[in-house]
Structures are given as C-alpha cells and as structure tokens.
Amino acid sequence: MEINAFSAILPNMEQIPHPNAFFQTVKEQYPQHLKEGFFLPARSPALYIQRIKTNTNTYTGFIASVSLKAYLSGEIKGHEETLARKSRIQAKLLEERQAIIKPVLVTYPNVSTIDTLVQTQWQAKAPIQEIYFEEDETQYQLWEVTDVEILQAFEALFEQYVPSVYIADGHHRILSASSPGLGLEYVACAFYPYSEVMIRDFNRLVTSPQLANDRMLKMLESVGTVQPLISGRKPKQKHELTFFFQQQWYSLKWKGLSDLMKDASLPLLDTQLLDQYILRDLLGIVDVRIANNITYIDGLESIAAIEDQTRNGMNNIAFCLYPVDREEMATWADAGKTLPPKSTWFEPRMKNGIVVQGIQLRKGS
Question: 8-197+348-358 is classed in which CATH architecture?
Fold first, then answer.
C-alpha cells in the first residue's frame, strides 16, 4: 500500500488553556476556530508519530495520507455497513469545514521493521505537541517526521509488507470523502498495528414488554444452557453470554454450537447468535439496525453501571458479549462481509481536532 506525507493543521495550544472544553466544540465550530487562530496554518508535508496514553494503556501509531483509490479498490477494507444518509451528512460537513478533523483509524498485522522504525522516531526526540485531557485522563503526544530518508523508509516498508489495512473507526468518514462530487484524492489515516489497538466488548440493553413475562428465562433456556451467577461479570470466553435480568446475573452458553460452527462459512460471532436466536426469534426484533428499544453499552462501562442502567426500567435485560478479535474482524472484511451492527468497540478512541487535514474541494461540489 502506498502512503504519503501530508500537510497537517494542528491546534495552537498556546491559545487553548482548557483542552477538555475546547476540543468538544471542534466538531461544530472548526471553521470559526480556524479563523480565530486556534489552529495553526498547514505545516510542510510530514508523517506524524502519535502516542495516546490512557489510564490503562498506551497506543502508538502514525498518521499519513492515503490515496482514496486505495479505498475504492479494496486495499482499505471495512467491516461495518454504511448508511447513505450518514454518508451524505458527513459529505456536507466536509464541505462546510473544508477539512477532515479526525483521521480514519485503520489497523494492520504487525510488521517488525515498521514497528522498530516507529519506535526509533518517537524515542529520538521530544514531541512537538502534548495535550492532556483531565476529564478522561488521556494524553496525546505527536512527533513530526520530515527527514526525506525516513519518509522514504516508511513508504517503502509499507508498500512491501502491508498490501491492505482494515478500518477500525471512520467508515462513514472515508466513504463520504471518496464521493466523486467532492474531488478529493487523499485522506489522512491513523495507522495502528494489531498490537496497538484493542477491541473491547460492545453490550446491549434491551427493553421489551415480553420481558415482563415470567417465561423469559424458560425461553432463553431453549437456545442455551442458563446458569445463575453469584455476582455480575462479563463473559470469560467466546460463545458465552452473561445477562442481567430481574436483579440477577446469569451465564448462557449456546446449545448446538458445534453444528452452528460447522455450518458457518465465516467465524461465528456472538453478536450473530444474539441477534438471531434471542433478539429476533424470542423478542421479535427483526432488524436491530432500526430498533429503538436497544441501547448499546461500550466495554468501558462497569458491571455496576450496566446494572444501574438496567434497573431504570421494568422490562429491561442487559446482555454482555465476549469481544470480537482482530482475526475474526479481518476474516469477515477479507470476505467482503460486514459484521453485525455494533460488534466492535475499538481503542484508541481519537478526538476531533488533534490532527486536521485541510482539503480543497472541487469547485461547484
């Protein structure tokens, strides 16, 4: 895959005393912020090493631009279903901002020579930018790479060893950027190898009148082996669900799993099983994409928080799922298939406005 240096627009941190408040406004107010000097003019073309430190992990990757032809030809592979409506909204925002305010997050299998090259760059000198967010205890660090030989090394190694990458976050952003009417040729992507991304669980809170029925546990026992738990927990292994219902936690392990796996052409996902055998067959939720009685709970939420949300309603049940792994995601994407909705919660979560790609749209777009 071909990658390129690009001219980034960075926030002017001397003018931003309160990062938490400021960066929350970038999504809506970027053009005004740019006019008022909260962002610096575009820099000379470079590649950027980025480290994101949370209170539990540190993620290291780099930011470069990629031809949108790579996306259209399938070198940049998605695993989520995209919606035309959301894509149109994103395209309109691109026109209004004249900028892409957050790179598309992509991941790829580790390549030791690329890993080493990235490491030597951030270890060699101090970052050009450090931003700390007190609210979520997250620090962003950025190093600029402008040395021609180093840039050529990145480009050559990526072209040799990385034929394709997988979108972790930004499916609708890259789809809208590729719209022929806009005339864009390149998009900024944040490249984080497999070892530097985490896929957390993505859980569900479901509300249904059927949950008031005392037969719900019996219904669940028709699709899996149900056992009460002494205390709340998330699943310990693939193909186990845990759920919180009527003030009690349970474990569910699917019945007939070996036959289901034998018949599956792709890795069998717990989101598939939940959607089909519980949400559709037992609760009558035919299409989870448009259901208004499902709330999605990211994997950062604690067991206590899940319990609190479930207790807010009489007819609620919370399902916790084991995380999808990177190989499963890649296998589905390689096959040109989309995962069931809300199957993955990727980290790192990138904030708007940390690294901005200014764009010039085709006149009359």
Answer: Alpha-Beta Complex (3.90)
Residue 355 Ramachandran class (φ > 0 left, ψ -120 to 50 alpha, else beta)? beta
**Whole-angstrom Cα distance, residue 52 to residue 271?**
29
pLDDT level of residue 154 (50, 70, 90 thresholds): very high
Q: Domain limits of the chain?
A: 8-197+348-358, 200-345
CA 209 to chain centre: 32
CA neighbor of 196 nearest in space, from 157, 161, 168: 168
Tell me if 57 sits within 8 A of 198, measured CB to CB. yes
Return the SS3 of 47: strand
pLDDT band at 365 (very low <50, low <70, confident <90, very high): very low
Q: How far is CA 87 from CA 106, 183, 223, 261, 336, in A?
A: 18, 15, 37, 34, 19
* pLDDT digits 0-9 by tens, 41-99: 999 999 999 999 998 899 999 999 999 999 999 999 998 876 666 767 777 888 888 89
8-state DSSP, 349: P
The 10s digit of each residue's pLDDT in 96-123 is 888 999 999 999 999 999 999 999 999 9
Task: Reduce the DSSP state of residue 55 to 3 states and report it.
Answer: coil
- In this prediction the pTM is 0.90
Of residues 114, 284, 123, the one with CA closest to residue 213: 284
Q: Is-contact 133 19, C-beta < 8 A?
A: yes
Distance between CA atoms of 349 and 331, rounded to whole angstroms? 23
Cβ atoms 2, 155 nearer than 8 A: yes
* CB neighbour burial string for 161-184, b if at least 16 within 10 angstroms, e if fewer: ebebbbbbbbbbbbbbbbbeebeb
Which amino acid, one-letter code, is at 28?
A: E
Residue 232: pLDDT over 70 = yes
- The CATH architecture assigned to 200-345 reads 2-Layer Sandwich (3.30)
Q: Which residues neighbour 171 within 8 Å (Cβ) at sequence distance 6 or greater?
A: 78, 80, 82
Roughly how many angstroms between the first and final C-alpha of the chain, as a whole number?
A: 28
